[in-house]
Every structure is written in C-alpha cells, then in structure tokens.
Amino acid sequence: MTFVLIAVGIVIVFGVWWRFFRIARPEMPPLALPHDDPRILEATRKAKESLGRFRELLRQPHKAANAKVRFVSSSNEVEYLWSECRALRETEIEVLYTTPPVTHSGRLERLHTHPLSDLVDWQIERTDGLFEGGFSMLAMFECAREQWGALPPELEKLERRYRTGHGR
Predict the structure, then answer these.
(1) pLDDT for 142-161, tens place per residue?
(2) Cα–Cα distance between 124 and 69 in angstroms, integer?
C-alpha cells in the first residue's frame, strides 16, 4: 500500500512539473517587433497591393485561405489575428478567427466581418502544399533570423513552402 501511494505521489509531482515547467515554455522565444517595423509595413503594403491575386487564388482549388486582420481587443489593444477567410467581398472580408487574441477578456465570437482596410496579410495554401501570400510571415522569418541567429528547423521547413510558392 505504501509503495502504491509513493508511486502515485511521484506521478502527480512529475505531472505538475511537466505541466508548469515543460509544457508552459514556448518552443521558440517570442519575436520583439515594433509596430512600425519597416519590414512588416512593407509586407502589409504588398498584401494590400496584391488583393487581386488573392481574389484570383480564392476562385481556384486550394487547401486553405487565410487572412490576417486588425482586431481591437476588450482592453483597447490592437492585435493582428490570423483567420480563415470565409468570403472576400468588394469592401469587406468575412473571417473565422483562428488565432486567439492575447489581450482580450470575455467571450469572443470567432466569426467576424471586417472592412477590407483591416486586412494586413493574406495567404493561400495551394493544392500542392505551397503558400502564396504570407508577406508578414516572410518578414517575420527575416526578423527571427536577425534576433535568434538562425531559424529553428521546423520554421526553416515552413519557410521553404513560402519561398518556393512565391516566384520571387
């Protein structure tokens, strides 16, 4: 009986340690990017200028269509959320948020309609698994290399899917 209690105690202690010290740590450190970073501003400009290409790709077979939109949280903080694009109309975009906001508290409906001016990036995953768009992602890969010295292998692999799909 004592052995069983000790074994259960060890499992509980290990589980608590795993939850708070191992799982809670992000695999990669967060990027420190000012809101006016010129690479991100340039990425937003490219995304907005290429909306015609986004519309064209939405009409073709694809695996996923995503949009990054400006969001103002309950604490009046501006965040940029990746979302699934549900509809792209002349002056607005309907999205389903896929990234949760960090500074928002309370209930948040995931389905929203934003004016097109809130769109800051778009990304299509083509049927061949390559990405088009994702201008802010490419800028963040560049910033990450600068801050971390190198990209972790999983991000290098992801980046290749963007580079190959852009023809840049």
Answers:
(1) 999 988 899 899 999 999 99
(2) 15
Six token digits for residue 107: 């209930």
User: Mean pLDDT, the chain, as a whole number?
Assistant: 84
What is the total count of domains within the chain? 1
Does residue 14 fall inside a structural domain? no
94-112 residue pLDDT tens: 999 998 899 999 999 999 9
pTM: 0.77
Asked whether residue 118 is domain-assigned, the answer is yes
Backbone angles phi, psi at 40, to 5 degrees: -70, -40
7 within domain boundaries: no
CA dihedral 159, 162, 163, 167 (to 10 degrees): 180
Cβ–Cβ under 8 Å, residues 101 and 132 = no
Show the domain range for 104.
Answer: 38-166
How far is residue 34 CA from its own chain's centroid? Answer: 17
